[in-house]
Amino acid sequence: MIIRQICILGGTGFVGRTLANRLTQKGIKLRILTRNREYHKENLILLPTVDLIETDIHEPEALRAQFAGCDAVINLVGILNERGRDGSGFHRAHVELAEKVIDACLKNRVKRLQHMSALNADPDKGTSYYLKSKGEAENLVHQAGQEGLYVSSYRPSVIFGPDDSFFNRFARLLKMTPLVFPLACPKSRFAPVYVGNVADAFVKTLTDPKSYGQRYNLCGPEIYTLQELVSYTSECLGIKRFIIPLGDLVSRIQAALFDFVPGKPFSTDNYLSAQLDSVCETNDLARLGITPMTIRAIVPQYLANKIQRARYYQFRSHLSGR
Ligand SMILES: NC(=O)c1ccc[n+]([C@@H]2O[C@H](COP(=O)([O-])OP(=O)(O)OC[C@H]3O[C@@H](n4cnc5c(N)ncnc54)[C@H](OP(=O)(O)O)[C@@H]3O)[C@@H](O)[C@H]2O)c1
User: What domains can be seen in the chain, in order of their start residue?
Assistant: First the structure.
């Protein structure tokens, strides 16, 4: 299969920007759909083969128009929290969108669909709306394989890299919290996977017929508890915090309270998804010939960098008297 033009949904995000970089290096033309071109243009328009297009991807007609002439579609859209609490936001962003993407692919005779899911995504397991809706969407796209679409899905554990929302978020929270840091779900286990490795998995499998119909579990080489990862973050930042592991009941109460905090730094749904260890039984990066990077090889560079930049800005504002 020859791929010249790809339409990407969610291509402006953390994973999307890395993947777009990799794909443009191969000379592939990218049509990246966004809700807000102005907001994202700085990050993407410098890439030579990228067209950044503002449109409503939840509008079937708009989607059909954008997929015209594309050889492949990549759907990276995902949300970790919804506005309300009844699962309808997750359903719309994951399941309903996947249905519209499949429909628009079939109507435009797009042959190839790469779909981003998540480790533990399963409509029948656990109680988190995030994981259940991700699982439902994943199954839907694989069913579309029977209608002639070549589908692959990707199921990463938590993803790290510059601009991630995991280490960077804990770094921000640790800096804001003096001395003592109460941590919910401290024993949850993760196998953090490097964003470059995730992007490589998409690129390597893009035109490989062996990948059609496959679901890839993507993990880093090491397993950590959440408490170990947060301690490591404070170590990288060079700040001392006493991490207080919260028990299950208090974690649940903290999540329920944060449900009502704007931006939901933590939520009941996050608590529920953290009840399942985010680790791979078999890591499919090995199957793809990709060597997973460790957090120690990558994370200190960008966390330490941020500290240096913060010090520089502090110094500058001190000099200018602001
Ligand atoms: N990051 C992780 O640790 C991790 C782990 C496992 C799985 N995943 C999955 O990987 C995918 C990419 O993750 P990411 O970290 O790159 O996410 P991200 O940075 O939040 O980017 C997701 C993109 O999706 C679009 N989007 C978000 N909500 C939307 C909505 N309601 N309607 C339409 N578009 C929406 C946004 O694009 P615009 O603002 O331009 O419209 C956004 O740039 C997601 O599906 C996520 O569930 C991520």
Answer: 5-159+193-218 (3.40.50.720)
CA dihedral 30, 90, 35, 198 (to 10 degrees): -30
CB 305 within 8 Å of CB 232: no
Pocket test for ligand 1, best of 38, 45, 79 (most atoms within 8 A of CB): 79
Residue nearest to atom 11 of ligand 1 (CA): 76
* CA distance linking residue 78 with residue 105, whole number of Å: 19
Q: Which atom of ligand 1 is nearest to the CA of 78?
A: 45
User: pLDDT tens for residues 84-135?
Assistant: 999 999 999 999 999 999 999 999 999 999 999 999 999 999 899 999 999 9
Distances (CA, A) of 213 to 131, 151, 216: 20, 5, 10
Helices and strands, number each (H, E), in the chain: 13, 13
